[in-house]
Specification:
single chain; 380 residues; alpha/beta; 9-stranded mixed β-sheet; 7 helices
Length: 380
Amino acid sequence: MNRNIAADGSRVSHYDYDLPSDRVARYPAALRDESRLLAVDPDASGVAGRGVPAGSGTPFRHLRFSDVVSLFRPGDLLVVNESKVLPARLLGVKPTGARAEVLLLRPAGDDPALWEALVRPGGKLKPGRRVLIGPDLEVEMVDSAPGGGRLVRLHTSLPMEEALERYGRMPLPPYLEREEEALDRERYQTVYARVPGSVAAPTAGLHFTQDLLERLDAAGVERTAVTLHVGIGTFRPVEVDDPAHHELHHEWYEVPLAAAEAVRACRARGGRVWAVGTTAVRTLEAAADETGEVRPGTGSTDLFIRPPYRFRVVRGLITNFHLPRSTLLMLVAALAGYDRTMAAYREAVAEGYRFYSYGDAMVVLPLDGDAHSRPVRDPA
């Protein structure tokens, strides 16, 4: 990047930051809600945080995730993504005895046995070849698929979900640099996960416990759920410097009628809509019209939220710390502002926060008075 040109978030290279390798959280915190929480206040003056005395307008507060209840007001609405991670990583052998791997991405149509997948070794697994996963599960290569993938058919005498639970492994992010362990079956899943379909966890929700959700209920915070199935594109690097030239993969979402009505009621009473994770943000914003009215139904979205973006629905965001140059980091910058977001990441690095899927959390607070009497927000 040309250092004579001020960074403003308009280029992918503006989202680089330095992270020591030991800050990547390879295991979750002992207790979900005891992870750390960096609160980012868009109303505070200035962007410096480290070393600034209390009461001087610093935009950052260092909390525990269990403190998040104190940030809400009665009548606010919390929107979660109840997608459930599939144990979609299948390890097996070819008829020759050589090892092979199949990562299921998404169902391919109405046939529950037909999937789009990524396979290794890709050059050897041509249409017609089979991979033996277990005594009663085989994967047949049916055809090529876009992006170098395969259309595959699962052959099993078991119900499909049972076959995956028995033989599949959780598709942990590659930066964890380890294989699945027993704890991942529970901890790489939110406590409210209900709808199977994701190949990566909506990780902001990993910090919530049932007790914490009950405390929010008792505090008068409403809660509703949408579904967006996280695809492999969440790990896809951005390989261009102009974000306009990067395309997101489509991801399936559903907004139930109850969720659309909950958003409408929140707006009517002047409450604030909080999204748990970037997936909930994208679902709500994709389903909203120009006035912020959220439409119920199902769909597919490739909405790429980056500065400048006018938010129609979401006012507050609970999220994790994301990879450099990622579309997820750009989404956070669109809500919190570019300078404040990058300052928050510098603060988190300096203060020893843990990063990525199993790491600590960050919350972008709504602007003061930014309820839904104000129909749009453009903090960039």
